[in-house]
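Consider a concrete sample entry:
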Amino acid sequence: MIHYDRPTARLRWPAALAAAALAFGIGTASAQAAETPSAPAATGASAAATAVTDDDEPLGSRPYMGWSSYSMQVYAGDGQAWISAEQIVAQSDAMHEKLQDYGYEYINIDAGWNGGVDEHGRPVPSETLYPDGLQAVIDHVHGNGQKVGLYFIPGISAEVYEAELPIAGAPECTTGDVVKRPLQQADYWGIGHRIDFSTPCGQAYIDSIADMLGEWGIDFLKFDSVTPGSGVGDLSLDARDDVAAWSQALERNNIWFELSWALDIRYADYWKEHANGWRIDWDVECYCEKEALTTWENIARLFPKAAEWWRHAGPSGWNDFDSLNVGNGAMDGLTKDERRTATTFWAVSAAPMYVGNDMTNLDDYGLELLTNDEVIAVNQAGRPAHPVSTATSRQTWYAVNPDGSVTVAVFNLGRTDADITIPLADIGIDGSAKVRDLWRKKNLGSATGEFVAEDVPIHGTRLFTFSPTKKSTITLNDDDSRLHYDGEWSRNGGKEVPARSQALTVSVFDSSQGGEAPETGASNVVSVNNDGPGIVYSGTWSRSAGRGMGDYQDDVQYSEADGSAFEYSFVGTGIDWVTETHSSQGEAEVYLDGVLVDTVDTFQAEGRGVQQVVYSVRDLPNGSHTLRVVKKSGQFMLLDKLDVVQEGVLDIDHVAFDRAVPSDAVVALLRDPGELVGVFRDGAALEAGADYVVDGREVTVAADLLAALPDGDSAIEFRFRGDLRDDVHWASADGASVSLTFAGPKVAITGALGPDQGSAEVYIDDVLVDTIDLHAEDRLTQQVLFSSDGLPKGEHTIRIVKASGDVLRVDALSYVTG
């Protein structure tokens, strides 16, 4: 089943649907048994992700397209009526008429389809829902040239376990043999017992069900309540054994395997190994019965999730955003602009595009959104886009295609219409590019340097293809999907150097007038207010301003719903959660980089604590981190602000300037001076050699500049370069390699030097052309390490192989188009 954000939905839907969600025989097994022959075992590859479809395309090569019943089950309030034979046939026929020509092919039946078990403890279809048998419905869907999906959860019901039914194909086993002892909960709702897969009987039971589904002709299986995930990340529930067992059983029956819901990203490699897709977040449904299918908030919260997950998607496995509910404005719960934004985001993220609407009642605009062939082509190309930055409400997401073109989407997540500027350098193009608007199917001419998407509406979007012109340079970051890694590679983990800015506070006073230098605080602590654009809220939240209680910037964000959470990604070495303590508040779980690190109690029996630091961490490896806090108890949970501690790059964080005794200010750099980008005042660059002078690691700021500052505290900003996009891939084993295939006359490697690095061999078209020395006394970023010009016309492959040193870092590869 699903996690329910609203308490009323939590009570209603698990009772109505999850209790009938085929935990293999809810009810009395013997009374509901039916004769269902098992299918013979099939043969195939060793993992579900490598199974082959009828047209010899590996299963999962592209994101699937289709329809799921669940959104309408929730919306209608009568969940099972929406998966009746009559309704499924109607949806299949509507898809055949309206959407199938555009690639939509899956008809997925969600929770509640079963009506008991057979004599082997395997689920059988409801006779009430399918009076002529589910097989008749399956045959109808197949007759329309479509595929059929069903819904399962981990575990085995108590009734089937206690009945000790013989397992089909394994007469030496019974359903009483497969349960893990002592008895353990298998799923989020506590419907079934956990299966013991250390015994052959456990796998045999799952095989018997999968083989039966194969005989029925089932093409897809949604596996819900998968943990770690589904609201449980502490391994108190762990369905990974179930996932592996089902993967093995489904692969030999060529059935797509989709995991749900809100999978834990720490186990992404495991999900990729065993499944064809995985839900990355909570339900998209708003549980607004007969009012709406979803809300804008449930779409917007996916952006930061996709920014974390996009690297894990690709051929054989995809990030699942849940149902795309954009087909009918009367029920979607979204404006027209929001409907297009959702469709664009699903498309550029290569997320499975499955409709949640009633397909018999799509409106004209919904059909326009769902059938734009150029937008669908972006989705089916399977190249997940990634953001330039999520620290803004006006976001640009892009993906570089094999031909060098770049798919670019802009999203206005803000509160006003806006022009969104796309610097071509941000999407890896140095030069000019031809621009095509994919929604309008119109060429817009060429852009050089930057392109402006004008008048992007509130919660609106634009979708483009940028095709670089000849002699433009294309730069690919280390995590671009065009790069191919061989060997053991990791990302970041403290091996990266992020770009860094630090403010030097200048306290100006005049001692001749009795003035004294003001007190100044540490400038490497940056406060982020609760309404900061980088903070992502999930669940139900509100903002309270003007409370007059001493809150930071006189406002807070608050939630009353257990399970609501906030999340913030930052670059630095520490962070503080600053909030209120009060008798109305309770416990919250704190996760750092996906790991549960603390449960804090914000309860205070008497009085009220304002701007209280209830969680603090220091001494993190300098780099990218994510803080997530989840409400567990109490009436309220609040966020006032977050204080982010950044790595110092100056030896001091403030100086005093006395107008009566004016003098230059001298600071020392803690990074190599070659990494200094510049010194800035109010965003404007100061003049090197005049306003400041760099001499080795010393920077002298001129007294004339300081004298022009106002009395009191002012800030001068020192900006330092970091690795491109603040990240690197790295390997420690000699022989590890990375390669890129490209077409053009010139190629270059840009990256890191450092004391822990050695040498690397560079091959072009399998010929060793250079051995480059990557060792340096200081850690340096974005250095040109290798360049080759004058390559013959055509396609080439450059490969970099680690030869020596502790690590090899990969940052960027670039080439010039032919």
In short: The domain at 387-469 is CATH 2.60.40.1180 (Immunoglobulin-like).
